Amino acid sequence: xxxxxxxxxxxxxxxxxxxxxxxxxxxxxxxxxxxxxxxxxxxxxxxxxxxxxxxxxxxxxxxxxxxxxxxxxxxxxxxxxxxxxxxxxxxxxxxxxxxxxxxxxxxxxxxxxxxxxxxxxxxxxxxxxxxxxxxxxxxxxxxxxxxxxxxxxxxxxxxxxxxxxxxxxxxxxxxxxxxxxxxxxxxxxxxxxxxxxxxxxxxxxxxxxxxxxxxxxxxxxxxxxxxxxxxxxxxxxxxxxxxxxxxxxxxxxxxxxxxxxxxxxxxxxxxxxxxxxxxxxxxxxxxxxxxxxxxxxxxxxxxxxxxxxxxxxxxxxxxxxxxxxxxxxxxxxxxxxxxxxxxxxxxxxxxxxxxxxxxxxxxxxxxxxxxxxxxxxxxxxxxxxxxxxxxxxxxxxxxxxxxxxxxxxxxxxxxxxxxxxxxxxxxxxxxxxxxxxxxxxxxxxxxxxxxxxxxxxxxxxxxxxxxxxxxxxxxxxxxxxxxxxxxxxxxxxxxxxxxxxxxxxxxxxxxxxxxxxxxxxxxxxxxxxxxxxxxxxxxxxxxxxxxxxxxxxxxxxxxxxxxxxxxxxxxxxxxxxxxxxxxxxxxxxxxxxxxxxxxxxxxxxxxxxxxxxxxxxxxxxxxxxxxxxxxxxxxxxxxxxxxxxxxxxxxxxxxxxxxxxxxxxxxxxxxxxxxxxxxxxxxxxxxxxxxxxxxxxxxxxxxxxxxxxxxxxxxxxxxxxxxxxxxxxxxxxxxxxxxxxxxxxxxxxxxxxxxxxxxxxxxxxxxxxxxxxxxxxxxxxxxxx
Length: 785
Hints:
This protein is of the alpha/beta class. The chain folds into 5 domains: about 40 residues; about 170 residues, Glycogen Phosphorylase B (Rossmann fold), CATH 3.40.50; about 190 residues, Glycogen Phosphorylase B (Rossmann fold, 3-Layer(aba) Sandwich), CATH 3.40.50.2000; about 80 residues, no CATH class; about 240 residues, Spore Coat Polysaccharide Biosynthesis Protein SpsA, Chain A, CATH 3.90.550. About 40% of the residues lie in helices and about 15% in strands. The chain is built from 31 helices and 22 strands. Strands 1-4-3-2-5-6-7-8 form an 8-stranded mixed β-sheet. It has an 8-stranded mixed β-sheet with strand order 15-22-20-21-19-16-17-18, sandwiched between helices. A 6-stranded parallel β-sheet has the order 11-10-9-12-13-14, with helices on both faces. Strand 5, helix 6 and strand 6 form a beta-alpha-beta unit. The longest helix has about 35 residues. The protein starts with a helix and ends in a 6-residue tail after the last strand. The N terminus is likely disordered.
């Protein structure tokens, strides 16, 4: 008993000590939190005198380091100072403090880089006090945490995002945050923009832009070299071309020594090239940005070891960064970008602007977009991370002086004035000022109302509580700005496609639908022809007998009854083929078909692989087909949505538009009439009210597009959302020729995106048009989802 009392006392004493320690820990945590919230951004001065006649602009940098992003901030502030009183806020320390001060009326630093919500709202209060900023430019995704605070202070923002979302820590969350809190976002290249949209699932709207930044002036730092730079240029010349001749082909790379920059790939290309051509004809020089100390120690050791083991110590040189970088470009023959992700580095812009060719990997570098547009892709773009292909292309340039000169001349022709900082900032300024112009929204509302073309029955969702046309238009304009869940204002119109065509001519544009109406509904790929419940049915539709097949994949037998019912609304009777997942009964399907008078040509069980796509391509079309026109349906429930009601609404939308029903009547007859009357029609599917693009399927889609013999994919597409459609067999022949086997499809369970099935869904809208066929859409009034 005494032992038990002693043990109980010990336990109570132990519990008291835990409670005491816990209070102490919580108290310290509370002190840290309060201290953090009371911290402020500190003012470091500014060398430019404030001008009362100019409005204020705020420019935010993620830090003041001597790197590309911060150098861009210096150039932005310097150029904008002609028109504005520029304040720079740096969220970190760095070597560019003096440079930032020299181009601003005020320079502030908040070095905590706090990620807590609400921190910057408090921290920036001194910076905001008695200052009316026209707008703010927030540079880099790493600066995103100030966006919410700037919204709180009612300051319009333009985010300049240079990073790949797929290569950013917490990429989806980070970029979604930026999309949510920034008024507008500008990416440096289409490939960077597509990656962000893919990772987040956002749509491109008129608040999302893509344009290359201007050529930057690199501020001189006394810590690197003094004087006018002539001594530094002589030093560089003695290293790169010690004999002053042109007998060696000089290839330079640039960046910090880290895995992302692909220094190992740079050395790999050097080894391949020298092995191909032998001798000492080529020299490779890597300029280390930020110093080796900032790189990964283990990666740096492996780089040094790679150079030694490859026997390249005399032909691969690592040099510290220099402020006389233009001397390097003039001495070099080519800049080699081997980064695994290279959005649009300043070094590439600088080199091209001086006429020095730049070579990169496809899909890894933003500069590839610009090289493609200049018809330099075959010469200067290597397959994705393919060292052999890059070495081969480089070898041709290094060994054929005549060909090299032709490439260099083309670079000079296309890029001498392509990257202009004045032009770049004029675009940014137009975007920012467009946000604060109250007349733009009013003009767009009136234009759409005047047209009376926004289809409320189609655009609105069941949960929308809107009771006026003006309210519907205002909702449309509000929703399209958000970028997530963008809907079509009317069937057949794709605002993202039209936006892309507008931005090719004018960087800042108003709402694309309002502009489409304002310009008289111009024809183009952004507006598809619509088949409605009022479209005619041909008297000759019976001529298609024996030429039309309807394939239905059945996973849920209860949904099949609905399909059979809808077939009764049509006069035409297609030959029906059913594939059945293994769990279902063939006899049950045949009995159901008999009840509705549907004659089945075939009922076949298939493996549960590839959802409806596998049974369609591998089973139904695996050995070819004699049918000219094919319909493809499946018993959709979309259980991943978490709501059976949502799944039923979607399947009802698809079936009503493809087969017909109480509202649509015989829609299948109307669809087949289009095929009968126009041989150029290749694909027909419902016009989904939601605008969906590649999302996380672009890379898979690119792979299969290449296998089918097609080039680069467009940024924006229309496709049969839900993978149900009618098509001309020839229009999907490239899919059949892939000869896919069951093992090519993913096993269940599969994700809701990012698989071969989702990629094919999108490619079904792309391939027929690439073959020269037209794509039409259907829409039954009063039916939406």
